[in-house]
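tl;dr need the bound structure. longer version: we got a ligand (guanine) that a collaborator sent over and nobodys looked at where it sits. i said id run it. heres the input, straight from their email, havent touched it
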Amino acid sequence: MLSGRHLTTTLPLSHNQPCTDLKGHVRRRAFPLREVHVAQLMDGKFVAARVRGEVAKHAERLTNSGTRPTLAVLLVGEHEPSKIYVRHKQRAAAKAGIASQLHTLPSTASQAEIIAKVQSLNADPGVHGILVQLPLPAGIHADPVIQAVKPEKDVDGFHSVNMGKIATARPELTPCTPKGVMRLLREYEVPLRGAHAVVVGRSRVVGRPMSALLLAADATVSTCHRHTEDTPSFTRRADILVVAAGSPELVRGDWVKEGVVVVDVGISRMPDGRLRGDVAFEEVEPKARLITPVPGGVGPMTIAMLLENTCILAERHAKAS
Ligand code: GUN
């Protein structure tokens, strides 16, 4: 647990006085306020490093007993952000002692060719986890490709069998980003039972499984999406707000109540080159009890959970064979 110092009360700070976060890092307020409310940052980099350490030990144990955890990544087309994400995933896998394979297909690959590739990975006993990087090129339907991945190798947890288990509160293999969010909430001891959790976004990758996991943890969950009438009227009542809308700085200061816990899943590069989340951080942070930064919040957790899922699948494979 990451308890300890909570900078969540109104602190008497003099002009530009530094304060520290839970790791003792100095955070400096650069504006002349005498009384400042400082939210505690939920530090995904820090928690993810700890998870990666645990995963590396798990991977070593598996390797020593004859099963080297192996992740196969299928990248179709030339989507530049996907190429970068995949590179990060592979680098993190190597550092944790997990083998990774990169399989690429051109953007002209047909649906049938992509599914055939997935099926050949399904049949390869040396592959424990299969990740089809999304989005797929225009014209390719993602769902049949996702359903082609054997549920036992579905490292993303996107197959209907794995999604169904989450929906019925029996999660077996949980999608990486929502799993990472749940881990962060746990590490920062955020109470979930009876809390009002609002999820903005209903994607397969984040929003839907996120809502299901929070519900399974006994939160009262509202899921907002593009057809929701008056989304701020929901977010203002949130004790926990998870935003995965893909819309930079969508959530403004007047969309949240005092003391809210905010998890920002969004990450967008602005025209000036800055990275921004789906939450207007400078406006929301003064009202929040806990908030994730962008970058350095959810992103590192997603990769750590991918590594954890790969080891879980490799262990199941070893036990079954
Ligand atoms: N694209 C963006 N996030 C993800 C993810 O978590 N898994 C896959 N497969 N593709 C993604």
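gonna send this back to them w/ a short note. Residues 131-134, 156, 176-177, 205, 302 surround guanine (CB under 6 Å).
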